[in-house]
Each structure stands twice: as C-alpha cells, then as structure tokens.
Amino acid sequence: MSDLDATTPRVFLARHGETEWTKNGRYTGTTDLDLTPTGVSQVSGTRTQLVGPGKLIDSARVARVWVSPRKRAQQTFHLLFGGGGESGADCGSDMADKVTLTEDIVEWDYGDYEGLVVGDIRSRRKEKGLDDEREWNIWRDGCEGGESAQQVTARLDRLIAQIREIQAPYMNGEKPADVVLVAHGLILRAFAKRWLKYSLDNPLPMMLSPGAIGILRYLLLFLIEKVKKSNDKY
Predict the structure, then answer these.
(1) What are phi and psi of 224, to 5 degrees?
(2) Residues ≥6 apart with Cβ < 8 Å to 196
(3) Cβ-based neighbours of 110, under 8 Å, separated by 6 or more
(4) Which of 203, 205, 189, 194 lies closest to 164 in space, CA to CA?
C-alpha cells in the first residue's frame, strides 16, 4: 500500500469472542449466547494489544461504531472499549455518542438451521430431495426459514452506504474517520465481500478467529480515477 492509500479511513471488523456454540461449529444466529471465559480472555487480549491511545484502534480516531444487538457482540464491544468489564456499564464518554446498535450487522438468520452443524444441514436437505446436483452452500442457497443471500446483501449494502457517506470527505486524512463493526464471523465475511463489491457467492478466502480484528480500507488512487471518469461525463 502506498503512503497515499495509508491516509484513507479504515473499517475495523471485530468478531465477538468464543461462545459455547462457537467451540463445536454450530450455526449461531438469533440464539443469544454469552461469551465463555475463554471468549472473554480472547477479547481482553485483543484490547490489550490493539485498542487504546496510540494503538491500532484509537477511540480518538473513531467516527462511528456499529454493534450487533446480540449479547455476545455487545459484551465484546464493552470488553474492547468499556474499561474491560463484561457488562460494559462504563463505556467511555468519548465513545458513547458514537455507538449504534443495528440489526444491519446481526449474524445471518439461519432459520431452520439454527444450532446445527454443516453436516447435519446437508443431510436434512438431501432427505428433502434438495441439492441432488450440488451440495448446499449458504453463500448461494441461503437458509430455509431464514435469510437468503439477497436479503443479507441488501442490509449490508445499506450499512456500507452509510459508512462511505461518513468517510468520503476525508480520503486524504483531513480528519480521522475510522469506523468499527462489532459483530459475528459469517456476517463480517459477508460484509467484506460486499465492501469489495463481490457477490456473496464469490469465493473469498478470509477467516476471522473469535476475538480477532480485520481491517478494510480504500485504494485511494482507484477512487481518484473513478471520480475523474465520472466528472468527464459532464
């Protein structure tokens, strides 16, 4: 990345820490689970290493934070930014006004597949006569009784539009405009695909471990060229 590109705002993707269902690979959408002690430790370790004045995520440089309303995501947010307490009752005043709880970043609604593992889902679908020609893929097929890829795409695109509106005036570093999303493993991978303008069924080899942080940003020169081409039309 060039020095110019390094001035553009960033989007931090913060995955919640471990839950009981994370440990055995069960699809966890609407089920509201707490972090395990290991999950708390994972997020606390991330905070120590990466969050704070002069660190990767500095609240002074954060313009907005969007958090999933699920308990595991809220606990993760408060562990990262609220002084280390799980309940997060003491979120710093410099962050409180920046935080929005939104359903746009909740985990994929797995519907009938909630609490199942991939093998169980594929077996159930085959019993129904589905997927004779190819195996079930959530990115393409969505979830019975839950969300389709198109529905997930629509809500993520809505959030991305808000983020880009906030960050657009500050592409040259005129003002800190980083944003943070605190959410779930699959939906954050889906967000990364839509940020890159990929369809959800487009392969993208990306994983976020529980408690991990990912980073997205802009390629500044590409944006400049895009604006110039747009202006040339008028």
Answers:
(1) -60, -45
(2) 204
(3) 27, 28, 29, 30, 116, 143, 146
(4) 194
Write out the two tokens for 7: 């001035």
DSSP 163-214: HHHHHGGGTTSSS--EEEEEE-HHHHHHHHHHHTT--TTS-------TT-EE
Task: State which H helix or E strand residue 220 sits in.
Answer: helix 220-232
Q: Are the C-beta atoms of 156 and 162 separated by less than 8 Å?
A: no
| Cα separation, 60 vs 54, whole angstroms | 9
DSSP state of 133: S
As beta bridge partners, residue 10 has 217
Q: Which residue shows structure tokens 């313009």? A: 63
- Structure token pair of residue 111: 């519907």
- Residue scoring higher pLDDT (179 or 82): 179
CA distance 12 to 182: 8
Residues 214, 2 contacting (CB under 8 angstroms): no
Q: What is the mean pLDDT of the chain?
A: 88
What is the torsional sign of CA 168, 170, 173, 179? negative
DSSP 75-122: HHHHHHHSTT-SS-----HHHHTTEEE-GGGSPP--GGGTT--HHHHH
Positions marked catalytic:
16, 107
Q: Is the pTM of this model over 0.85?
A: yes
Give residue 189's pLDDT band: very low, low, confident or very high (50, 70, 90): very high
Distance CA 175, CA 186 (A): 31
**Facing residues of 64 across strands?**
179
